[in-house]
Each structure stands twice: as structure tokens, then as C-alpha cells.
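tool=predict chain=A
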Amino acid sequence: MLLIYTIIYWACVGLYYLKHNYIASVMMISLAIFLFVSEIRKSKHLVTVRGLFALGFIGGFGLSLLKLSRLSADYSLMTFVVVFVSYFSLYLGVVLRDKGAKNNSDQFNYDRRITNKLFTNQQLLVVILLIVTFLAFIIEAMMLGFVPLFTKDTPHAYSTFHVFMLHYITTFYAFIPCIAIANYFENKAERLDIILIIISFVYLMIMSLFMVSRSQLILSLALSILIVIIYKIKNVYEFRISKFGILKLITFAIIFIALYGIITIYRAHNIEYLNGIFEMKNENTPIFITQPYMYVAHNFENLNYMINNIFRFTCGRRMLYPLFTLTFIKKLFPIVVDSPYYIIKQELSTVTLVYDAYYDFGIIGVICFCFIIGYIGKMLEDKAYAIVNNIYNNKNNYIVILFAQYSYFMIFSFFQTYFSLTDTWVHIIFIYLLFKFIVMNKKEGA
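tool=predict ok
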């Protein structure tokens, strides 16, 4: 597989340098789809770390080769090398984990004794989270004196709505629907779980509107969909969807698109504003094409800009940013996190998953980083599917939710440096503590 990837990838690079951008783009996107489908055929699962990373990162890079914006610049050879080794290294990380897992036959503790009695108050946990996150939002609004939804002509009100630590609790509302869904599957579809799922999604829409946060809305919906897929589609060759299921998906999509549009309007992001930022070569390009294209493609432009202009590596300070923030080192010694942010345009500040890895250690950093996330991701993938298929002694929902979150990072690997964000690690810690509490209660009730 790596040989096929290598040949096609560098053929695309050759076509790009020969100024056949469109052909190179189509070939690169086709390569990403091929790698994704190959993973599905091999694993029989739709959600796989290696497949989703190929689709998100290599596919996103292929889209960026179109160069439809005036902000676009020619990619350097090093940028092509960085993208190439990113998937190559992640692939090898997954391979190493696979070999290690096969050599360890006891990895999942295949014990079918009934030792996994669920904590009876899982539903209560969802209710508590609803209350706590809403109270955090109210307190935050009172301390800051505004709610982003009710501001006018302030495109970045959502980013200034932030009280340190308290905001992490507020934004945890995005995880409540996926927790409720995981409970639904583990509790064998109890009626109360269905009610809580409906309530949590209504709450998600209300909070996303108040916060005018499209990112939290997308995160929550993506996690929920991933968890449903992980539980429902255990074998792609045996999966069937009913007409009613298709109708539900269409309804779900319509509601999402409508809410996304409303949030965009309330963020003061009108078409003129967005077109002025995106600077498309063809000014008549419809906004529904321009916006998704730029949200994918421009991140690689920022990566290329950083690679071409960086004058020294930061030796771990970028990826350790969450640690510096949570331990208050950032406030005591600001110089620790003082490094220029290489982006082409202030309004388009998103980068890629490997941005900080290169910023810290160059190409070696990218190779090591992707190898590690491939290894850890495959470990989570194996454990999550073992839980779903009832062959893992530990029935903790946390692992499935964490794998869904990890998969989300792979899908949107073209977008952000998720593993360098404080929000990511705070939410992981929150989930870990919550489900550690549930595990302890399981043991007491067993």
C-alpha cells in the first residue's frame, strides 16, 4: 500500500510542477479516497484512524492544489515532503501497533464473565452535565457582560467570550449528546436514554446559537455520528439502512445546515465580508463553494508559509502549550510561549494537524508525531471495537467516546493542531474523570 501511495503521490507532485494543477488535484483526492476505501475493505469498519487521516489530510491537500484563491502561493518541495511523510509515518505507527497487538493475545482480557454492570445513574450524569455547563455559561456571561448572540457587528465576539478555566466547562456542552448516545447503546436503548438524547440535542442547538459557535456544533454532531457508526456498523458488508433511516439523515442534515447558516449570520459573517477575506481568483464563485474550499485548502497555505519562513524551531514549546497554560507557566513566564504565528491572513488562522510538530522540530518532529498518533490511535481503535463487540472486559464508554474524538481529529486533520490545544486536553481530562467515577461505581455495584 505504501508503494502505491508513494508512486501516485509523487506523480501528483510532478504534475503540479508541470502546472497541471487540476489533474494533480483530482489524482491526489482520488488517492485519498482509494486509501480510505482500502482501509474499509481491510478492517470492515468505516471509522479507522488510518483511513480517516488519509481522507482528511491527503484529500484536503489534494483540494488545496487547485489554487483558487489569490492568497495561494506555490508549494515548496519541503511542504510536499512534510505532507508525504505525515501519512507514511502514521501508517507505520498503525502497522507497529498491529504487530504488537497480534503478539499479545491477552491484550483485551477476553473474559466473558458478567462483571460489567453499568452504573445505574448514567442518566443522572447527563442531567448533571446539562445543569453544570449551563450554570458555567450564565456565570461567564455575567462576568463578561455580554452574550455573543446579542452583539452587533462583532465578527469575533465568540472568541472574546472566554473566562479562563470556566469556559472549558461551558464548552463541554458539546460532549453531552455523544455521552447520551453512548449510554443509549450500552443501556440497550432505554426510553429515558432516548429522552435525554433529544434534550441534549435541543440544548446543543440552543447553546451553539448563544455562543454563535459553529466549531462546537460541528464537533458535537461529528462525535455523535461517529459513535453511532462505531456501534451500528460493526461490519460494512452486513450493514443495511432503511428508508426511514435515510429520511432521518436528510432531516438531520437540513436542521444542521439551517442552524449553521443562522449562526454564520449572527457572527456578522455576511457574503461580502467572507468574499473580502477569501480573495477568490474568480469573484463570481458561489459562497457555498468558496467557504468550504477555503476552510480546507487555506490551512495548507499557512503550513507552506510557515515552512518557508520559519527561522528557528521552538523545540517543543508549541506542542507543550496546554501544559504551560494549565500550570500558569504561561502567565508567569510569557516568553516561554512567545513565538511568531506564521499565517498569511489574520482572519484565516487555522493550520494543519502537523503545523506545531514542524514548528517545534522540523521534519523529524512531523515523522515522530505522526508515528505516535498512528500508534496510539490504532490502540484506541482496537479497544473501542472490542468494547462494541463485547470482547473486552472493560465496558467503559469513555474509550469509545475518546476514540470518536480521536477520529474527529483525523477527519479534520487539515484544519487544526488539535493535540496542541488546551481545550482538547481539558476536555479529555474531564471525560476521563467522569468515567473513572462511573467505573468505580460499577465495581461497587457488581
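DSSP finds 18 helices and no strands in the chain. Residues 296 and 330 are 30 Å apart (CA to CA).
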